[in-house]
Design a protein that fits this description.
4-stranded antiparallel sheet; Alpha-Beta Plaits; elongated; Rossmann fold; 6-stranded mixed sheet; 335 residues; alpha/beta; 11 helices
């Protein structure tokens, strides 16, 4: 039985539908990546699963308990590491964890053993009696993770757990997440780091405009944007200009063009013979091609394929167009 089972889950705020009939499952011990642009509905979905918001429609169970009818039971089985660190700077790690343990009605012996266990595993035991306000962001985040795990939840929701952290701390937390999964803890990971999601996630769901548009393993998702009739090439063109881009976008052998920076483009092609005509078209516009390489789609390509290249303003709902077409603009929303 799935440890998280979401069926047609919806949330409306007045006339605005933030989450629209979302359906997915998460298996025990799985690291499940839940990705989406700003304002796509992922945070609202997570808040419903954590019983912080009541759904407008549909239903879901977490650890076998209904998120509406058995909300208290759900809370006993989940841990939440929100993007904002939830700690008191004036207190030490031991004092913070003791406070949150008491708020969760944990026995004193369980609080004591939990503090020892998690501070040890997160390499923070030597700092347990120092004020949290003196810590670096990475140190605070490790205490924040210990807070979420103190009551030994079966499901942990991690919202941007490595945001703003240095590479060493990021790697440490990645390894720790993998260990949790291997021990049977289920992890739901939200992140804007496509490399992080690709490295850690067993399966991924991408949500956009309130609905799940794609789901599967990272490899399966990459295969969705790569088949025998298409390919990808990366090109470096020092004098890249609008005329070259416009000409490429009009070609029948070109599915899409994305500028990765001022001098590089990634072209999704149609047909095995596409590179020749593409090179000729750029040369005809005076383009100086410094390098051309075949490329495999990565998770960022998948993400842009299903969600487009427009920047989202989550607060206002406005979008800002950026140069380059929407990959896979003809793809319909999966329900």
């Amino acid at each position: 039985m799935s440890i998280i089972d979401v069926r047609e889950l919806s949330k409306r705020f007045g006339r605005f539908t933030a989450v629209d009939r979302v359906t997915f499952t998460v298996e025990k011990g799985e690291i499940f990546g839940f990705l989406g642009p700003n304002g796509a509905g992922k945070t609202t979905t997570i808040r419903m699963l954590c019983t912080l918001l009541r759904p407008t429609g549909g239903n879901a169970t977490v650890a076998g308990f209904d998120i509406v009818k058995q909300a208290n039971k759900v809370r006993q089985h989940i841990g939440l590491v929100a993007e904002k660190i939830i700690l008191y700077d004036q207190l030490t790690p031991s004092e913070n964890l003791t406070l949150f343990g008491r708020l969760n009605n944990l026995p004193a012996s369980e609080i004591t053993s939990g503090i020892e266990r998690w501070l040890g595993r997160l390499h923070m035991e030597q700092w347990k009696d120092k004020q949290v306000g003196t810590f670096s962001t990475g140190m605070k985040q490790r205490i924040n993770i210990a807070r979420a795990l103190l009551h030994r939840p079966s499901v942990v929701f991690l919202d941007e757990p490595t945001l703003g952290l240095d590479p060493q701390t990021t790697r440490f937390i990645h390894d720790f997440i993998l260990e949790l999964s291997q021990e049977g803890t289920t992890v739901v990971l939200t992140t804007h780091g496509m490399g992080e999601a690709d490295t850690l996630s067993h399966r991924i769901a991408i949500i956009d405009r309130g609905g799940v548009v794609a789901s599967g393993t990272p490899a399966e998702l990459k295969n969705l944007v790569s088949n025998n009739d298409s390919g990808m090439i990366d090109m470096e063109i020092p004098n890249l200009n609008e005329a070259m881009l416009a000409r490429l976008k009009q070609m029948q052998v070109v599915a899409s063009v994305v500028e990765t920076d001022a001098h590089h483009i990634r072209v999704r092609t149609k047909g095995a013979e596409a590179p020749g005509p593409i090179v000729n078209a750029i040369s005809a516009e005076g383009g100086q091609i410094r390098s051309i390489n075949t490329a495999e789609p990565n998770l960022e390509d998948v993400f842009l394929h299903f969600t487009g290249r427009e920047m989202r303003d989550a607060a206002s709902g406005k979008v800002t167009s950026v140069r380059g077409p929407v990959l896979g603009s003809g793809t319909s929303r999966a329900r």
